[in-house]
Amino acid sequence: MNRRSFITLLGGAAAWPLAASAQQPAMPVIGYLSARSPDDTAHLVAAFRRGLGEGGLVEGENVVIEYRWALGQYNRLPAMAMELVHRPVALLATTGGEPVALAAKAATTTIPIVFLIGGDPVKARLAASYNRPGGNATGVNMLTETLEPKRLGLLRELVPQAAVIGVILNPNFAPAEDQLKAVQEAARSLSLQVHALRASTGAEIDAAFEAIAQHRISALVVPANPLFDARRDNLVALAARYAVPAMYAFRDYAVTGGLMSYGPDLADLYRQVGLYAGRILKGDKPADLPVLQPTKFEFVINLRTAKALGFEVPPTVLALADEVIE
């Protein structure tokens, strides 16, 4: 073999790994769009990854996840959704309620979307029906709006003398008015008055609690809302400062020090979003995957907080609790 042929052979050998790597299929990219923050959802993102893992997808090994966080600022969602669509991504996973799912839906009619919302996806025009969504979007309805009567009833059990109940709402959150109507309807059946408080910033949340004290509101309902979730610690601290018994939508609030919570197992629902994302990336169509609903709900009471507020939790209420934090 002459020198020139030897060099040519070496050059070809050196190129083999490059050629082989060039032929490797690119890993699919999931665009993860959330109205919340990475700090208050780390455990939920881990549940989403578990769902992917159950379908054989592992971040960094055979799938890439691009994260975008709106931090409770819904006006940022449309641009973030468009950015992910232009990335481009193979699928959009949206968490944090209807505003996120609607931003994704407005950005693309072709890229599959797996959503996690609190209200009716048919009413929100995210799906044609529960059984056959029919478009490029499917996911999970947490049923948070339909749970307000149950939450209010449990709160009334603890504060039977209450005449006026406060409900804090974020006016920038699309389902807020539906949340208010649900609370008002439940309150009428219990002969309670409802005082609506609206807050979309930290300063407005502070002002809402000042109003609770001024109007002598007996108890507070905090519906599901990504902004409130991102400010969970602050809300719980304000409820303690103003000594107002509060009912929250998710277990995380009670663990943080909130008095009571009633809602779905949120980590399991994030896992379901991951499972659906994996199925779609492997060939299933969102149009054919039915919208899921939770089957497990958690009633959590924080006895330490109850004692600090001067409340004796009735045995009948304790017997209903799935978890008691002592």
Please explain how this structure is put together.
This protein is α/β, with parallel strands linked by helices and 326 residues long. It is built from 13 helices and twelve strands. Strand 9, helix 10 (251-256) and strand 10 form a beta-alpha-beta unit. Helix 5 (148-158) packs across helix 6.
Which terms summarize this structure?
single chain; 326 residues; alpha/beta; Rossmann fold; 7-stranded mixed β-sheet; 5-stranded parallel β-sheet; 13 helices; elongated
Short description:
This protein has 326 residues and is an alpha/beta fold. It has 13 helices and twelve strands.
Beta-strand level of the residues, as a percent range?
15-25%
Class from secondary-structure proportions: alpha/beta
The number of distinct structural domains comes to 2
Q: Rough shape?
A: elongated
